[in-house]
Amino acid sequence: MNEFKIGDLKIKYPIIQGGMGVAISLSGLASAVANQGGIGVISAVGIGMTEPDYLKNFKEANKTALKKEISKARCLTDGVLGVNIMLAVTDAEDLINIAIEENIDVVFLGAGLPLKMPDKILEKGFENIKTKFIPKVSSAKAIRVILKYWAEKYKYVPDAFAVEGPLAGGHLGFKKSDLVNPDIKLSTIIRESVQEVQPYIEYFGKDIPIIAAGGIYTGKDIYEIFQSGAKAVKMGTRFVTTYECDAALEFKESYINSKKEDITIIDSPVGLPGRVIKNEFVNQINRGEEKPFKCSWQCLKTCNFRNVQYCIAKTLFNSANGKMHDGFAFAGSNAYKATKLQSVKEIFDELIAEFELTKLAALYPVTNELAIASA
Predict the structure, then answer these.
(1) Taken in order 107, 111, 115, 120, is the CA torsion positive or negative?
(2) Helix 219-226 and helix 344-363, axial crossing angle in degrees, nearest 10
(3) What is the reported pTM?
(4) Tens of pLDDT, residues 216-246
(5) Residue from 262, 276, 274, 257 nearest 327 by CA
(6) 4-246: CATH, from 1.10.760.10, 3.30.505.50, 3.20.20.70, 1.20.1250.20
(7) In the chain, where are the structural domains located?
């Protein structure tokens, strides 16, 4: 596994931990991944719910909690750290500004096209900011739109793109029917994305690496997606069942105890399909049962909180705290493959070993066949 670069930022291994909210990937998991040579990512989604008085002022709680988690992570690692920010949240601009003020290495921008950027960034200039900006998209078309807009408007282009396929967990940027369409493959989207960035790489004279995400679980998966042109991978599900993951043990056990048939798609109140692990709460919402709640602040711009079946933020925070009877676990398509708790170091060791074995098998197929036959 070669070193991965995003501009002048050097990462020992091309492994990025996916940002998982609410309160699944905070400073604990992010710092552990960074210490192993990957990029550890703090999710800013609903992060203020970790503050005891968040109901009094959710917006301020988000700011306070994000600063705290970045500071905690910096005390635990000198590795590369990122923040994942959903553009769909009401205070996205505030969270982006805080991440930059805290000198975070990388900001992942998802749940919307990052076209209008905060004024503070534009005043200072992208090139004068330490932080790298990586939009998270689900298609080469989205990359085309972002590149064209940024090039014309800002005379700058994103530092990389994270391309998430249909096998990812959580909210998904695909139609529900596309999630079960075998013809829609991450490898195809990656190849299309690599072609899309090429003219801008040449014009701006900077590399724009493609990061693959969604359904990647093993070192073999990493090697195979690299053959499509990806330079790194982003993995969320694989890091949930680690000791260092910030979620409660009950949340992690829902992965370990799940079967393949338990991984299912639901309709989220935010208007997107979401991949989850089926449990009694999921059965209840599928039956149409209402989960009454009081909204203290419209955290998502598009949430029609007066007419939704349940509060997605509260539901996810419940499960992060182990209250699985009042929530569910977002999960990728391979969540059922988890069989035990492991350390982040053990995960890295496994991924690297599997990657190198797959690479050797590809380089020396005849030798590999003979070895298998001898065994």
Answers:
(1) negative
(2) 50
(3) 0.93
(4) 999 999 999 999 999 999 999 999 999 999 9
(5) 276
(6) 3.20.20.70
(7) 4-246, 251-335
